[in-house]
Amino acid sequence: MIRITLACAVAALLAGAPAAAQTIPVTIEVDASRPAGELKPIWRFFGADEPNYATMKDGRKLLDHLGALRRGDVFFRAHNLLSTGDGTPAFKWGSTNAYTETKDGKPVYDWTVTDRIIDTYLARGVRPYLQIGFMPEAMSSAKPGTPYQHSWRPGFAYDLIATGWTAPPKDYAKWGELAYQWTLHNIERYGRDEMKKWYFEVWNEPNSRFYWSGTQDEFNKLHDYAIAGIRRALPDAFVGGPDVAGHGGAFMDAFLKHVVSGTNHATGGTGTPTDFLSFHAKGVPRFVDGHVRMGIREHLHDVDTGFARIAAIPQLKNKPIVIGESDPEGCAACPGPQNAYRNGTMYSSYTAASFARIWELASRRGVNLDGALTWAFTFEDQPWFAGYRQLATNGVDLPVMNVFRMFARLGQERLTASSSAMQPLDDMLAKGVQGNPDVGVIATRTPAGQLAILSWHYHDDDVAGPDAAVRLELKGLGKAGTRKVTQWRVDKANANAFTAWQALGSPQSPDLKQFEALEAASKMAQAELAPLAVSHGAASINYVLPRQGVTLLVVD
Predict the structure, then answer these.
(1) Tens digits of per-residue pLDDT, 195-253?
(2) Which residues have CB under 8 Å from 384's CB, separation 6+?
(3) One biological-process term from Gene Ontology (predicted)?
(4) Hey, which residues does 55 pair with through a beta bridge?
(5) Superfamily of domain 42-409
(6) Catalytic annotation on 101?
(7) Catalytic: which of 201, 205, 325, 329?
(8) For a disulfide at 372, which of 39, 136, 323, 396, Cβ 3.0-4.6 Å?
(9) Is 2-37+412-555 a CATH 2.60.40.1500 domain?
(10) In 3D, which of 53, 77, 112 has the Cα closest to residue 205?
(11) Cα–Cα distance between 247 and 23 in angstroms, integer?
């Protein structure tokens, strides 16, 4: 009964919204007989500042959902895995107490908390993108009197996070030994074959004063000693970095030169082992004329510039690349009206549109893009729909999570596809999506031989606008007959717990029935459309794609 009542309430809520203008006619064409290259599953990477949330009730539930996307091939990156403390999470903070020292300076290793975190990942089909950081308190070279754990919380100045954990080590040999001992322990616990599948990188955004208080050369030294320690224990570990903020500028250029031809601080040899390279890319949303305007242009510009920097180094241009944080903006825990896009379908439609262009940029630059990591997870025991950049709130998935479920249904063989309303890549790099909306498409063939066709309707401005009336023209379908067509939708009325919560009156303490209704509303409903009639290898499907909507059609 509550589902019927909730559906009516959602319908009433949407009916009260400003009426959309006349629909936009859009033609999408897909040729199933024309492959267009590989579509790598770059979406399968996630991460968060707070490592200890992963072992808590809502964190474990969300990790289950992430692991189910592509079991054993989803990766999670977290900060603070070597930070000193009792394991109590806070905003932009976590700790494991993995390293302390005796009074006479001898190392004490305790892997209890790191084991709990990694065990939680692996039990749910998720593997570590293992960040070696941050600096343990006993090893920090911060000036006496510098606080170690920061006291930052939403609304505070961001530079408050830069406390003693950002400092270089007092002793680089001890730092390298820490990396070695942790790797050795993990080999004993998880086995070499398992660990060969992990990613290993050092630190986070060393070109940012918020995360690294040392110099460029001190970071290169930090990196060299950690990589040497990992490789001493596991010679074929998959190592890389440096996960710079943005494309990294001159800092990234100097790092790339160092790992190719510089003198290794730890070994004395030339260069540093490098299996993959990583940088970050963020958008810049703004609050304009009473609404959020997204900054997809800046996001894509960071991606393109980062690719170009790596491609310019002959020894590195074919290395796998992971965009180690790839998001609409830079701080998952930061509030503000410019971040009011996060709970609803602006975030989900932005995700579809931005990933499509990231794939396109990688193809244009000819780089080996391995992953684009979404820096969003969940914040335990916080208000419902608090507006953080996350994939779930209080154990209920947000609409954006369902776009990743759609990505997981795509095949890796891309097919030739076009849309009459898909904005050209160069226009998006120049000005984002400020005029006509972006109604785009990606088409693939799955391993089972199905056609999986993703389409989205995106605009930078979070305001009402006309829906798209889509005519999907398919060809290359083979012999005449009928085909089964299944549709999944994410929009304001479908797979959207946020609108369901608003329809319930925005309760901050939902009872059990309300919670179950929100969970039900968060799920994508599979709808079987009328059988598709194929004649002369061709067929067509008509559907409405609401503004900020994302749709997946699967044709058997």
Answers:
(1) 999 999 999 999 999 999 999 999 999 999 999 999 999 999 999 999 999 999 999 99
(2) 393, 394, 501, 506, 507, 508, 510
(3) carbohydrate metabolic process
(4) none
(5) Glycosidases (3.20.20.80)
(6) no
(7) 205
(8) 323
(9) yes
(10) 77
(11) 39
